[in-house]
Amino acid sequence: MPHICRKASKEEYEQIPYHEKELAEINLRNIFGYCFNYVSVITGPYLTYRTYRDSIVEKYSSDEKLTEPCNRVILEKFKTILIFGILRFLANYFWPLERIFEDEFYIDKSFLYRLWYIWPASFFFKVRAYIVLIISECIFAAAGVGAYPTVFQSSPGRGPRTKDPQLLELWDGTYDFNTTTNCYIYTTETCLSFRGFWRNWNRCVQYWMVMNVYKRFPSRRYREGVTFFVSAYWHGVSSGYYFSIAMSALYFPIEDLCLKRLKSAFPNFPIWLKVCLWINQLFAFSYMFIAYQLLSFPRVWKYYNSVYHFGYIVFVCQYALAFFWPNISTMLFGRKPKNIEEMKENTKPDGFKRD
């Protein structure tokens, strides 16, 4: 029998969990208000309908106690904006982004200089993006949207993990703004993998992508690639978005295989290896995302030709080395690299090897 949309009966409504009941009451007016509320129009689709509704209906969202935490969060974030604004000014003064659009950049500058320029260009891009994301968070905080009692355990994009009213009895009156937190900057900048970077970048939009694209796409094998392609299309139709965002999905299998080989050799990564992984993550991001700033295909291709597609060659070499590493290890050392599982099987619970 085909599924027919209908209004829940009184008995069915009573069985719906408290934090889901508001979703059973949506009508056309609610949808219109959600789509065109001024906060979302200014900042983008960072919040769910539940978050939008809670900011209007729930008592804790209209409590006078909310004013102080909102003001405090806005002030803290404005301090961060000021710091990033200064950094952006300095970066633009010493390494102007416009330089990569000039013919002299490709005629007078050396290969090493052109390749090195991905770092200041990447820095400029990140600082600008962080400023935009933080301003969005300030707009949400100013409107009181996304502020939840800490006992609800909110997460970026998703909102409260639970809205059990009994938890409010234990509530100490403090709020968190995790629901509209777009980016944890420290975690984003210190992660060791490119995949880890993406997991911490623009998390509210990522949540939307995961729920509406990744989890709904029928093929598990191609979910990730399709999600990043949709993300690139979300940004626009310029080639630079696809060279930067969509191509990121092609690098994940390379990185995953490399990390798998490294973990088999180093169960606990030493400091020097962590530094190398961090630099590699920065290089992968910087090399791909210079295309985001060049945008048009002629400019993107001109730049990559000028550096002889060095980054892509590095990525291919990484994959080849990781893929053939068992054979290479056998030729060089006369044995295959130990696997972590094999090491565990050959080790007693007290840490001594079996005979």
UniProtKB/TrEMBL annotation:
Gene Ontology cellular component terms for the protein in this record: membrane; mitochondria-associated endoplasmic reticulum membrane contact site
Keyword Acyltransferase: yes
Highest taxon of the lineage: Eukaryota
Protein location: Membrane
Membrane topology: Multi-pass membrane protein
Keyword Acyltransferase included in the entry's annotation: yes
Alphabetical GO biological process terms: lipid modification; phosphatidylinositol biosynthetic process
Pathway participation: Phospholipid metabolism; Lipid metabolism; phospholipid metabolism
Location (main, coarse): membrane
Pfam family name, one: MBOAT
InterPro entries according to UniProt: LPLAT_7/PORCN-like, MBOAT_fam
This protein's UniProt keywords: Acyltransferase, Membrane, Transferase, Transmembrane, Transmembrane helix
Annotated GO MF terms: lysophospholipid acyltransferase activity
Family, similarity comment: Belongs to the membrane-bound acyltransferase family.
Protein name as it appears in the record: Lysophospholipid acyltransferase 7
Organism: Phlebotomus papatasi
